[in-house]
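hey can u check if this looks right to u? its 433 residues, i copy pasted from the old doc so theres a chance i mangled smth
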Amino acid sequence: MKKQEKLAVIICNLNKGSTVTDCIQSVLSSIGFDIGSNLRIFVVGNASDETSLQNIQQQYGSQVSLVLSDTDLEGCCAVNLGIKHALAEHFPYICCLGAEITVAPQALKIMFDFITATPNVGLVGGKVYHKHMPHYVQQFGISIDFKHFRASTHFADTLDNGGMPNFVYCDAIGSCGMMISAQAIEKVGLLPEENFLYWDDMEWGYKIKMAGYEVVAVGAANLYHSANPMHRYNNTKVNYYMTRNCLRFFMNYTRPEHCAKMSLVLLRSIFEEYYLHKMGHAHNMAQSDMAALYDAIYGIQGKAPDNRILVNDESGLGFVNFFEEHEAVYMEEDDPFLEQIIRQINPYLIFMQLPEPNAVTIVRCESILKIKDFTFSLDFSDNVVYIDKKLRMLATREDMDQIKDYESILQAFLFATQPMILRRISEIRGIEF
């Protein structure tokens, strides 16, 4: 390894306790790197309390450089603070790790050797596994889908049976584990803080690719993410930022001739979430949906203004309560995954081989909002429920009436809001429609 080829590792800490120390320890155990020689760890003390910082300092001392922030910068703002320190000390390569990540001993060297050996590569990631299910991939590169206007995470929740490619050439790498060259940062800038949270890594990767670099996920570099995929946030933060920043991204980067289609696709998606939240009496979540939409249209960026991030009132208990209260079900189609979920809710539930009057009949569908025909072989009643691919359930006549009204209300919503999005695109990009 050349003397000047050194690596800075940025880890953000907000009172993460043993999680962040596990991350630090895995970096220190990396093969091919030595602290003070060719590796430096910057831990961003992101509004962390003194106890958390003291534990890190006492445990690692000079092996870790603390970068302190008195305020909770969150997301990409905190990462950028660490990157600025690394750039100021002229590190040519920088690796950003989420505090919930542990790296396999060879992972950093594999990523480093790949990015240094291929000058046209500006951004590298690894294969990220679920730590609690280490044979299942969480993400292996991200691509921006301009056909369906979404981000597609490669091999998400897929069992790694050895048949995956060695490399995935893609558009972005998740911010939980990415390595970038200082040269690429100098060309495109830091992580886009206009997003504040979410879609910052996707926009950064896309900008790096548009600048002429390749973005690659390397399968031999294994990382493990300890975050629980079933974790329920206590506020509407994820809902707001994901919705606002996704729409903002495609408003900025969609080709002009596809903007009309893009606006309809994303408005349909946003309204679907709003309508389902409304049906579920999750008023705060519904309010967050609309706030995110209009903030994207009116150019609100960065940290959300007041009254956007609310208490998460999406209980999800309707699904649980429904199956807790029944004794027998009949599934119209075999679905082992759904059956497993229902058995976890009620292990005493009997699964019938044939429909019976006293058993709930489960009908699977693509989306409960797309149901057009309710004339199931049994009369629609409390003994017939529809469950879609996202495990959303239609189980009452009130639900049915609202779904029958959905399409007409959606069309009125599209009629009112699509011109607003196209006008905004015209303003920010100088495109005439």
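The chain has a mean pLDDT of 89.
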